[in-house]
User: Fold SoxAX cytochrome complex subunit A from Telmatospirillum siberiense.
Amino acid sequence: MPRPSASTTYEKSRTSTRHPLALTIILSTALLALSPAQAANLTDNRRSGYAFMGPPLRAMQDDDMTNPASLWQRDGETLWAEPIGEAGRSCADCHGDAASSMRGVAARYPAFDRTMNRPIDLEQRINHCRTAYQKAGPLAFESHDLLALSTHVARQSRGLPIAIENSKALHPFLAMGRSLFHERQGQLNLSCAQCHDDNAGRSLGGATIPQAHPTGYPLYRLEWQGVGSLQRRLRNCMSGMRAAPYAFGAEAFVDLELYLMWRANGMPMESPAVRP
Ligand code: HEC
Ligand code: HEC
Assistant:
């Protein structure tokens, strides 16, 4: 299993340095005969967690009627239109119809925020609008309302490619996320990469180890019987490594989220996905 991006530099696109020019031309000519999905399979060894699931779970994710996360999304749609806080304004008052204003937004997060001078994730972005523009208190991480709103916003990016900006301002944070991904930690002295790069596709205690692409968050996890954020998922993995999980909202988490989204650049968003 090739290591998805361990050696790719941030400045260059993931494939540009790999093949000599002639080979690239031969490959591109051959690829014209294939459908985009077939072509992606040949050139890209990255796989979403979706690819490691059986047909029943895939079907559950694909159909809004059976995807349990739709319930959260519908609550998010209601909250979107509710005027709240001292400002008495709703998300819709400023952003209008989420289907157009939020299209592709979740695919770009975490994104660099000039006021914070660092990347913030989608949940922090939503809370920023609550406090700065609605003059309401921030929602707690993993609270029903924050998950509902982030699910509603992320749903508007379903099918669109992940598009973390290649901006110099993000590079130090990407580098930090990358080193957290490769650093051994916890009582088991394991790194994320040892499971997700070196052993993806193998089974571990009844679960198949995916490549850790964050294509589907927030998502419905059967084990949780509910919707959770990417940070909740990462906390689960850190507990599994017998490492002390970072606090929700910690900068290290956002750096890790940024790195995971960056190495999944171009992969389609599935939010809200379903996972075992
Ligand atoms: C001991 C192996 C192991 C280690 C170490 C590990 N994970 Fe995981 N991870 C798993 C398994 C197994 C799953 C899937 C669990 C399931 O679906 O039941 C998973 C799931 C994930 C997912 C969800 C992918 C999806 O399709 O939604 C992400 C993201 C992830 N891990 C990131 C990380 C990060 C970041 C680290 C390091 C902080 C890490 N993991 C450490 C085994 C590991
Ligand atoms: C008073 C107007 C106002 C309200 C109310 C408001 N926002 Fe915003 N929102 C903005 C502005 C202005 C920006 C972009 C400028 C900035 O970064 O502050 C923004 C940016 C965003 C972004 C990032 C968009 C991007 O392209 O990166 C998201 C997501 C978002 N808002 C979600 C929400 C949600 C969800 C709510 C309701 C809980 C909400 N906003 C309420 C004004 C508002």
Summary: Confidence is low (pLDDT under 50) at residues 1-39. The first helix runs from residue 21 to 31. The chain has two domains: 49-65+164-275, 69-155.
